[in-house]
Amino acid sequence: MGIDLARESKVRRVILSGEPAGSIPAVKRQLEEAWNAKVGDSAGMTEIGSIMMFECRHQPGGAHIIEDHFIEECLEHDGDRQVPYGHEAERVVTSFGRGFIPLVRYRTKDLVVKVPYTTCPCGRTFDIYDGGIRGRWDDMKLVRGTNVYPRAVEAIVREFDAIDEFQIVLERVGLVDEITVHVELKPGFESDWDALRERLSGALRDAHEGLRFTVGRAPAGSLPRFELKAKRFADKRPKAEFKH
Ligand SMILES: [Zn+2]
Asked: Is the dihedral of CA 225, 229, 235, 238 positive or negative?
């Protein structure tokens, strides 16, 4: 519509919720530039009735947990053992605020990494989920023996300002799983395509133990657009069949 949001809008704060995007540095940078505003992440759950974490103005690379309303435990995904600071864990929540539908040690399947509050200079004593909600344990895909998280792929794709929309497709070709990232370029960047493809596939490979990613170009406007929760990961591999 020809509106320059960065110059013409009066928006000074953008609060994101419900997507990993708010804590992906490249996405946050793009949004802050587009709006000329400070972007902060948050997340909540219908089950607990509210948000349970927020990012303070120091933007410590994650969000403070609202610990006077919730006990947020970090447990191993397939068990009950506590996971120490700095390691991937499943978020398990107990809520104080909801008397009618109390939640006690509710397993959220959210993938988080908790770090101590001292990693933020703001002075709050609420611990932090570094990187916000990093994804869901059931989002993880095993591709030729390597773990692939959609959020990790998005974090790399969004480092490239020339990319508009993208989609990750996982397919079985013969007996082998192949992963392709389809990207749409922003107008004006078409001549950069060969170099971009090279750099993006290299960055994806380096971040995934050498796993080969194909990077394909999609025509402008051809990939799905989303309102609310985006689903940019399509697993088209055949489901396992069980014979009786
Ligand atoms: Zn803080």
From this structure: negative
- Number of alpha carbons in the 13 Å side-chain half-sphere of residue 218: 18
pLDDT tens-place string over residues 80-129: 999 999 999 999 999 987 777 788 999 999 999 999 999 999 999 999 99
Q: How many CA atoms lie within 13 A of 203 on its CB side?
A: 17
Element (H, E) at 63: strand 62-65
Q: CA 197 → CA 6, 89, 112, 217, distances in Å? A: 29, 33, 31, 9
Residues, beta carbon < 5 Å, ion ligand 1:
56, 58, 120, 122
Strands 13-17 and 163-173: unpaired
Q: How far is the CA of 63 from the centre of ligand 1 (A)?
A: 8
* Ordered alpha helix ranges (H), 58-192: 150-157
- Other beta carbons within 10 angstroms of residue 165's beta carbon come to 20
Domains of the chain: 5-135 (3.40.50.12780), 140-235 (3.30.300.30)
Measured from the Cβ of residue 202, the count of other Cβ atoms closer than 10 Å reads 12
11, 37 Cβ separation under 8 angstroms: yes
* Helix runs in the chain, H state only: 5-8, 25-35, 150-157, 193-206
Whole-prediction pTM: 0.78
Checking if the pLDDT of 141 tops 90, the result is no
Ligand 1 centroid to Cα of residue 98, in Å, is: 26
Q: What is the whole-number distance in angstroms between the Cα of residue 18 and the centre of ligand 1?
A: 20
